[in-house]
Amino acid sequence: MTQSGPILGSTRLTEEQVLLREAVRVLADERVAPRAAAIDRDGAFPEDIRQLLAEHDVFAIPFAERHGGLGADLLTLILAIEQLSRACATTGLILAVQALGAIPIQGAGTPEQQDRWLPGLASGEKLIAFALTEPDAGSDPSGIRTKAVRDGNDYVIDGGKRFISHASVADYVVVFAVTNPEADKPSRRLSAILVETDRPGFTVARVEHKMGLRGSPTAELAFEGLRVPVANRLGEEGQGFAIAMQTFERSRPGIAAQAVGIAQGALEAAAAYAGQRRQFGRPIGELQMVQAMLADMDASTEAARHLLYTACEEIEAGNTDAARWAAIAKLVAGDTAMRVTTDAVQVFGGYGYIDEYPVERMMRDAKITQLYEGTQQIQRLIVARSLLARG
Amino acid sequence: MRILVMTKPVPDPAANAERLGANLRLDRAASPTVVNGNDEYGLEAALQLVQAHGGEVAILTMAPATGVETMRKALAMGAMSGVLVADDALAGADIPTTIRVLAAAAATQAWDLLIGGLDTSDGAGGVVTAGVAARLGLPLLSAAARIEPDPAARRVRVQRLSAKGHDLLEAPMPAVISATQALGTPRYPTLKGIMAARTRQITMLTLADLGADMLPIGGQWPSRVLGVLPPPSRAAGRTVTGDPAAQAREIADYLADQRII
């Protein structure tokens, strides 16, 4: 049986997963890929792509059917992020961030809160962002300074956040703020509060100029006397840190999927180029040094992919070591994406370094997967802690 | 309004893997299949018509049982049900047999419009939809670029592509329409559409359900494929050079000679 698309490993997937992946692949190849270079060049959020994902129910994937979603599992979401990122990493992140921001509502929200906010997110009519990081609190959330002080039925939030994906285009931001400064453990000081971005006191202070993912706005936020009803709090007071960590167990696979998708896109571009580019009277793909690079790129991408798929299955099955599975999936996928995209540029030679071909963009985009949702160093810390805790 | 669209599974032209197998018949395992392009244009038009006028679209396919897979793609676009005629005795069926079978199968369904592609990208005979209309004794509105039904008056009007532009055709419903690319770009199925398509009803029919006179007498196809050749490569184009005004005149003269303008 000939495959119309790239070979992507299907034997472990359900019929439903194969169908949805194929539909997203077609959208990615035919509608997203032709826009990828311009999205990178323009450096603006691609509203047309957001509409495309909304119209085709791509946003609906990680939401329950009662909220207008497809009720798909984590692996199905990961397949979609991977296919979108294969064409355009910025587009893959649109879905990944929507899923990320929704997890605290799905995991800690009341049924009323879920009914209020999730349908708009599932349809793509509303966008959400996740705001944990601050200028002085990245890898170490105990340094968070943003505070939310009770005032009657409201919280009044003061402070700010930095490096928040989509914060400048989102309708909602899940803000992690200190509500219990006196708690004995730093991990009991935070609460998660959903903030509608049209509230007075919410300001986008600036949008960063980035190396890659240039269509995905990354914003700094300032909160001044930002008043939000207590009813917007997700979970109990002081549970914010736990909610954030549980969120990462389900969101880091999304970043790993973005990384695998970027690697796959770069591999395909490099293999196609190696078949066309002629030097020494023949295609460079006939040179063993190039063949070896392509083979290593393929093998490591496939290895990262299947580690990720396994991690998704373990996390979905409720594995108590979910944090470790999420961390090793992102660790391996992020490093793979960086190496594979760097090698792809090498296969292209000087042409890889200019924007006539997509691999320089993919290399710039790959770097972020080693940095956000926990640096690779933080992932290693999580894995090592899990190992050592077993005694 | 109920519209029945004939959707043939054909080798995906994008895969470029169309191959002949035994007896010069299509090797169906060699290539992924898609809904034939002109059928898909007709399906898109049908879906838009029921959105505008109310009603429902169903699909009709004659294919091996594996045709269900391709039919799901059409159902994912928005067709609500399907009929698949699958019978081992139809392997290698020729055009007259295909016409008899599709006409008989269409007659088992209630519809106001029956739409099929002007031709198919594999066989390219280009007569099946017209043949079905003839067999059913219904008006054929061919090479449609636009379809405008008037359900209240039970009439349908079609803009037909012609060498000079459009012909306007009008007929009472039920009627048969052959579809072209000019009807517009088919939609991509939504993910919810794909999921819903998995549970939509596909009614399976065999020759036993369609009456006795479907197969040719004696069991031999009256036509036989002797060989298959790729189309000749296109001849080099003619280049017009010189003064722009003279170029324009030369091109206009040529188009007039060809009776294009």
Word description of this protein:
The complex is a heterodimer of chains A (391) and B (261). In chain A, 51% of the residues lie in helices and 15% in strands. With 391 residues, chain A is an alpha+beta fold. In chain A, strand 2 and strand 3 form a beta hairpin. The N terminus of chain A is likely disordered. The model of chain B has no long low-confidence stretch (mean pLDDT 91). By secondary structure, chain B is α/β, with parallel strands linked by helices. Chains A and B meet through helix 1 of A and helix 5 of B.
H-E order of chain B: EEEHEHEHEHEEEEHEH
Q: Describe the sheet with the most strands of chain A.
A: 4 strands, mixed
- Output the helix-strand order of chain A: HHHHHEEEEEEEEHEEHHHH
**Alpha carbon gyration radius of chain A:** 21 Å
Strand order of the largest sheet of chain B: 9-8-7-10-6-1-4-5-11
- Which geometry of chain B do the CA atoms define? globular
Number of helices of chain A: 10
Question: Shape of chain A, please?
Answer: globular
Biggest β-sheet description of chain B: 9 strands, mixed
Q: Quickly give the structural class of chain A.
A: alpha+beta
The class by helix and strand makeup of chain B works out as alpha/beta
| Unreliable stretches covering 5 or more consecutive residues of chain B | none
Strand content of chain B: 15-25%
Which value, in Å, is the CA radius of gyration of chain B? 20 Å
- For the secondary structure, the number of strands of chain A is 10
Through-space gap between termini of chain A: 49 Å
Instruction: Specify the oligomeric state.
Output: heterodimer
Strand percent estimate of chain A:
15-25%
Summarize the entry for a quick read.
The complex is a heterodimer of chains A (391) and B (261). With 391 residues, chain A is α+β, with helices and mostly antiparallel strands.
